[in-house]
Amino acid sequence: MSHSVVPGRTKGDSVFGGVDDADSRRAVDERTRDKVLSAVLEHGPVSAAELGDRLGFTPAAVRRHLDALSRDGLIEVKVIGSPSAGAGRPARRYVLSQRGQTRLGNDYLHIAQAALGQLREIAGPDAVRQFAAGRFADMEERYRPVIESAGDRLEDKAAALAEALSLDGFVGSTREIGRNAPHAAMLSVQLCQGHCPIQELAADFPDFCEQETDVFARLLGVDVRRLSTLAAGGHVCTTHIPIGRIARAGETARQSPESDAPAPHPYVTNVSNHQQGRP
To answer: Which ranges are annotated Polar residues under compositional bias (predicted)?
Structure first.
């Protein structure tokens, strides 16, 4: 059976060409949404305007893809109030949902959950803790030369740790807290991880988060504290890294001349690993 083609058009312009065009548009949309999803993973919490700037899309195009991803349950909106913005309208920021995190790869999750559950039942909770410690021992060994090569500044060490985490798929980033805050007394760095390949596993077995936190503390040489985890429902894993007291202009002049005691080491802190937030 032959199909007629409207005179003056090629077969590619026929009804079959229309189907092909529709399929092509859908494929382009899917690839674009994957880019948007990846950008939300890497930079979230992120606004639609920031996504548009990063990806080179118009605001209307970004919002169309964000709406589609939201309908699919792959992203969700976090309403964030900014203390510096006064009484203005809270900002809307996009983050990956748990379903979006799962889509990025948990093929063997159920097998691992069953195996660890059986291990805990047969050998007890300490066996799971030892298993988690062994898993992160490899990470610590690989990361240590990277951290040591970053120098003595804790901020640089934290940045190196974030980069190493990103190479392993955790989407690491850092930001300083307190330096520009007028009333802040202490400076800190927040280490964020936008993706956790074992998120659902860690939700059932918190030892994984605890062991990872201990590794961070040993690598950085300072006690750290977990503020949030993806496993506990946070939109990122956030680790508080204390840097030290912020030096203010004029502080030296106000000090007593006879005060010759050495300044405290900038890495000294009263935060203990026992105060870590548990996922």
So the answer is: 269-279
- CATH number of the domain to which 28 belongs: 1.10.10.10
Residue 116 lies in a domain: no
- What average pLDDT score do residues 225-250 get? 83
Sign of the torsion angle spanned by Cα atoms 242, 243, 249, 255: positive
**Among 13-22, 53-62, 124-133, 151-160, which range has the highest average pLDDT?**
151-160
CA distance 140 to 101: 24
Q: Are residues 54 and 170 part of one domain?
A: no
E strand segments, the chain: 75-80, 91-96, 172-177, 186-193, 225-228, 237-245
pTM exceeds 0.70: no
Residue 204 lies in a domain: yes
Which residue range forms the structural domain that includes residue 16?
Answer: 11-103
Residues 6+ apart with CB under 8 A from 204: 113, 116, 117
